[in-house]
Amino acid sequence: MNVVVTGATSFLGAPMAERFLRDGDRVYAVVRPGSRNMGRVEKLRERYGGRIIPVSVKLEDTDRIADVIKEPCSLWVHFGWDGAGSGNRTQRDIQQKNAEDSLRALRGAETLGCRRFVFSGSQAEYGIRDSLMKESDPCRPVSEYGKAKVRFYQAAREYLTESGSAIEYVHARIFSVYGPGDHPWSLVESCRKAFLAGEEISLGECAQMWNFLYRDDCLEALFLLAKAQGTVGFSAATPSGREKNGIYNVAAPEAETRLLRSYVETMYRLCGSRGSFVYGVRPPNAEGQANLIPSTQKLRETVGFAAKIGFEDGFLRLLETEATR
After folding, report:
1. Residues near 323 by Cβ (< 8 Å), separated by ≥ 6?
2. Are strands 75-78 and 2-6 parallel, antiparallel or unpaired?
3. Are 170 and 312 in contact (CB under 8 A)?
4. H helix runs in 37-177, sequence order
5. Distance (Å, rounded) from C-alpha 114 to C-alpha 320?
6. Helix or strand or coil: residue 268?
7. Taking the complete model, does pTM exceed 0.85, yes or no?
8. Pairing, β 258-259 against β 168-174
9. CA 277: distance to chain centroid?
10. CA–CA distance, 201 with 225 (Å, rounded to integer)
11. Beta-carbon neighbour count of residue 273 at 10 Å?
12. Cα(235)–Cα(164) distance, rounded to whole angstroms?
């Protein structure tokens, strides 16, 4: 089938495009004009040839994407979101524009005849919590980033309801993902680099509960949601009384949830116990001292997702991958 992936040069966007290519699909890789990471798409073109087609379009123009893509598409997976780094998560104007651009992308998907739109939501939508996070729980986001993700979910449902659109909307609340190509400022990347170099790293308290999911497991969960048979998301066409909210936590199993300090100390050990770390120096990020305690029952029961890669295995894979670059 024909699949559109926005943010196709990003940490999750590029390997997501490849996951569809491996399944035999054709991928329209939407990237912003002049993207510095265009090499990620070019590498896929070298491997998969004409089955991946770069599309240079600004996010604010995605509602007119049918001017560029001239054939129907079945799926749209949306990673296009500017300012995802911690510093920009407090910027209301940036995050509000992201929500507005995402609604344009949803309209663009409709013009292409897409049957399903998968959106990359975030655990930041829940806000500060110290208990199990279920998809049915109310959201109380703290950062402008989390607020914008919630606003888009509400706007998407409202738009689809009022328009009577047949497109199905899936909202994947992605928790903490790590792996090759991760942002250099992430905790895993910061620890990996510091420990391997024998340096000291200053950390926050790291006293909250946390849940890490390896990148490839995250991609498989999103792939299953995108390709699932039947209705898994919100659709205005769903008969009354059988409505689905379309929200899914994408995270590691509950057994992987533990103190963040445990993850730090595991990374330290796997890097040969080199360097050092100090807790309680750095302030909390834009979401505050948040706990990540996700329930993944809905994802398991709906699409049969089961993560295959535990944290130790995933971190060792990351070390091996980076050592060969």
Report:
1. none
2. parallel
3. no
4. 38-48, 92-111, 144-163
5. 38
6. helix
7. yes
8. unpaired
9. 28
10. 38
11. 10
12. 9
DSSP letters spanning 281-312: -SPP-TT-S----B--HHHHHHH-------HH
Residues 20, 10: contact at Cβ < 8 Å? no
Reading the block at residue 235, the tokens are 């659709």
- Both tokens of residue 152? 């888009």
Q: How far apart are CA 258 and CA 283, in angstroms?
A: 21
pLDDT tens sequence for the chain (325 residues)? 999 999 999 999 999 999 999 999 999 999 999 899 999 999 999 999 999 999 999 999 999 999 999 999 999 999 999 875 656 788 999 999 999 999 999 999 999 999 999 999 999 999 999 999 999 999 999 999 999 999 999 999 999 999 999 999 999 999 999 999 999 999 999 999 999 999 999 999 999 999 999 999 999 999 999 999 999 999 988 765 456 799 999 999 999 999 999 999 999 999 999 999 999 998 877 666 789 999 999 999 999 999 999 999 999 999 999 988 7
Can you read off the two tokens belonging to residue 236? Answer: 């205005």
Q: Which two tokens stand for residue 31?
A: 């990237």
- For residue 169, give the nearest of 249, 109, 123, 229 by alpha carbon: 109
